[in-house]
Write a structure and sequence with these properties.
six-stranded mixed beta sheet, 14 helices, globular
């Protein structure tokens, strides 16, 4: 909506005759019912009740689920959170929620999203496995549950080809990861350990220098020479490639069947207990978003990019978007066995004490949704609620 000018010089104009003024006032009054109808057609009658493309979020005849006015959903503006990006953009969550309004928050790091979950600032979120594990263990298994999968893959080791020509050349170099203890940081530290090199997990110092760098500034760090490469998710990996970096290793190649969890769906345990039907509605939206991605790959990619543009102010160029999107597999399966393995990696890296992850999953609501959709059930690898 264009900004309304409230100050400054106005163009002079001749006064209208009294009859014309009265006619103008009558026309304005007559238009009010039409204006009210127009606003009502857009939701509750304000811009906040429309999505970012001006589409109605809530149907006029919709009803609240379990009497709940709002569900607060969090996700990252990353392509690995494509299920949430597409579901938000296409209104798939809101459609399933009826008059229970879907409100969205974005996060750049797992710990901040876990903090938001703990403080009840969000109810449901898309998040990486390491923050989910940390959040679960730090609360002694009393705060969150993983209720679904979302994505696999989309993580790469990209390097400056002038400085690093082989995997062995990584030794002695500066490699960026997004954050201490985040999913990619754990994966890189585990890979370094398997190479037989030593790195202090906390400081990042050792045979390789691990430089914890926000994904938003990693491309600039690479261009300036502050880092020689990065172990990062998409689209950061493809942004670096567009700057001349080379993919040295795709993390998928390190996993059986090239599948490993990169994004989960989590929920506050109390919210799940109090509003199970709302949780099922969000999961239906997630399943439909993944189906939309499968059935309409080009449209889904464009939808995710449009949402990224809204959050960052810029859309991704094709040379970044296309390879990044291609490397991610969107799935309802949480790939629970790989979460357990990732926890073992964090233990080996010295970032986590041996956790008890039994009960971290509650896949009952998702399997109910999948059964209704004619889809196969997913497995919790023995880590489900007792």
């Amino acid at each position: 909506m264009p900004a309304i000018r409230t100050s400054g010089p106005l163009s002079p104009r001749a006064p209208r005759p009294a009859r014309a003024r009265r006619s103008g006032r009558l026309a304005a009054v007559a238009a009010l019912p039409l204006l009210a109808l127009t606003l009502s057609a857009c939701g509750y009658g304000s811009d906040s009740d429309k999505d970012d493309d001006g589409k109605a979020k809530i149907a006029a005849d919709a009803k609240k689920i379990e009497g709940l006015a709002e569900v607060k959903i969090g996700y990252f503006p990353n392509l690995t959170h494509g299920t949430a990006l597409v579901g938000d953009h296409e209104g798939l969550f809101q459609k399933e929620l009826g008059a229970t309004k879907a409100s969205y928050s974005q996060f750049n790091a797992g710990p901040s999203e876990i903090e938001a979950l703990n403080s009840k600032s969000i109810d449901i979120g898309w998040i990486g496995p390491s923050p989910a594990i940390n959040g679960y263990t730090k609360s002694n298994g009393e705060n969150l549950r993983i209720i679904g999968g979302s994505a696999s893959g989309g993580v790469k080791l990209v390097v400056n080809p002038k400085k690093i020509k082989s995997l062995d050349d990584v030794k002695g170099k500066k490699i960026a990861t997004p954050q201490l203890g985040n999913t990619q940081d754990v994966a890189f530290l585990n890979w370094v350990k398997e190479k037989g090199w030593k790195v202090d997990a906390q400081s990042g110092k050792g045979d390789v220098s691990v430089v914890r760098t926000d994904n938003k500034i990693t491309p600039d760090a690479y261009k300036s020479g502050s880092v020689d490469g990065a172990w990062v998710p998409e689209p950061t990996a493809s942004k670096l490639v567009a700057e001349g970096a080379k993919v040295l290793l795709d993390e998928a190649d390190l996993w059986p069947d090239k599948k490993f969890v990169i994004t989960n769906v989590i929920v506050r345990q109390q919210f799940l207990k109090d509003h199970p039907k709302v949780v099922e509605a969000v999961l239906r939206g997630a399943v439909k978003a993944n189906q939309f991605i499968k059935d309409n790959p080009a449209k889904a990619k464009a939808a995710a990019n449009a949402k990224l543009k809204q959050h960052s102010g810029k859309e991704l160029p094709a040379e970044v978007l296309d390879p990044a999107w291609k490397s991610i597999q969107f799935t309802n399966d949480p790939l629970a066995a790989t979460l357990d393995t990732e926890a073992e990696h964090a233990v080996k890296a010295g970032l986590l004490e041996q956790p008890d992850l039994k009960g971290i999953y509650d896949l009952g609501p998702l399997n109910k949704v999948l059964k209704a959709a004619g889809e196969p059930a997913v497995d919790d690898a023995g880590l489900g609620v007792k």
